[in-house]
Amino acid sequence: MTTWICAGCGLEHPESDQPPADGCVLASDAVTDEERGDLGPHGWWTTHVELARQPHRTVLREHGHGVHSLRREPRFAIGHWSFLVGTPEGALLWDPPAYLDDDVLGLVRSLGGVAAIAASHPHMFAAQVGWSHAFGRVPVLVNALDKEWVPRPDPVIEFWTEHVEPLPGIQLVHVGGHMRGSAVAHTTDGALLTGDTIAGCHTPGWVSFQRNYPRHVPMSAAVVRRIVETLDPYDYDRLYTLGGDTIDHNAKSIVRAAANRHIRWISGEFDHLT
């Protein structure tokens, strides 16, 4: 039996003799008004064995405070950065990689291994079950609102709502926005890992809010306001996105300022300038 990986988005699908006949769970050939999960047409297949054969390396970055990020080069599928957030009780693997091989597993083991796994939203599920099995079947936390998008069901998956603490000192907070169950990870020492619910942009030290990235569809003013208000009780100074953008200080003020400008523009306040 083979574990099949969608080469378009990197999601790991159930083991079978042949690739999934129904295609990737995130493939969409017709754009609907809601565009739930839409990444555009895709769904050709590869495997962990095939990915390991291809020439590649894993790039590692150290951000301080026990936070590391890693990404495969050349990029595969979405090409996101994964994060390892260390605590005295073990590390959270956030937005896990879409590939598994001896080199990347050895690298992560050298950093202390993995005690829990979570993704910011379904586009980042990647090889979450495979990573869990590689580290003793550690829990994989999935927001209950995204249950329909889980491509590979497994007993290691635990569903949660609103907020949950996978490890002491780390909370997952449901904020929605990009997808219904979109979440962020917050550490008590002031880091916020946002996936792409709050994303980087061309302006350094700034953030953006988009509902659909392939088509650059922005979030509504009400949703951006809700996200900022949901995060308001949490103190954070540093921010990390799946695209690799980082804010090393004053992150909360930057998020508030960017949200305010987004809301003003999308609400029509500056239409007279367009």
Q: Characteristics of this structure?
A:
single chain; Metallo-beta-lactamase, Chain A; 5 helices; 28% strand; alpha+beta; 6-stranded mixed beta sheet; 274 residues
Secondary-structure topology with pairs:
Layout: E1 2-6, E2 12-16, E3 45-47, H1 48-53, E4 57-64, E5 67-73, E6 82-87, E7 90-94, H2 102-110, E8 116-118, H3 128-134, E9 140-143, E10 157-160, E11 163-167, E12 170-174, E13 183-187, E14 191-193, E15 210-212, E16 217-218, H4 221-231, E17 238-240, E18 246-247, H5 251-266
Parallel strand pairs: 7-8, 8-9, 9-10, 14-17
Antiparallel strand pairs: 1-2, 1-3, 4-5, 5-6, 6-7, 11-12, 12-13, 13-14, 15-16, 17-18
Describe this structure in words.
The protein has 274 residues and is of the alpha+beta class. The chain has one domain (2-273): 4-Layer Sandwich (Metallo-beta-lactamase, Chain A), CATH 3.60.15.10. The protein contains 5 helices and 18 strands. Helix 4 runs antiparallel to helix 5 (251-266).
CATH top level label: Alpha Beta
Q: SSE order, as H and E?
A: EEEHEEEEHEHEEEEEEEEHEEH
> What ranges have pLDDT less than 50 throughout 5 or more consecutive residues?
none
Strand content: 25-35%
Using the CA coordinates, give the radius of gyration.
18 Å
* Number of helices, where a helix is a run of at least 4 consecutive DSSP H or I residues: 5
Question: Which overall shape is indicated by the principal axes computed on the Cα atoms?
Answer: globular
Helix content: 10-25%
CATH superfamily: Ribonuclease Z/Hydroxyacylglutathione hydrolase-like
The major sheet is characterized as: 7 strands, mixed
Q: What is the CATH architecture descriptor?
A: 4-Layer Sandwich
Structural class: alpha+beta
Termini Cα gap: 57 Å
CATH topology type: Metallo-beta-lactamase, Chain A
The total strand number stands at: 18
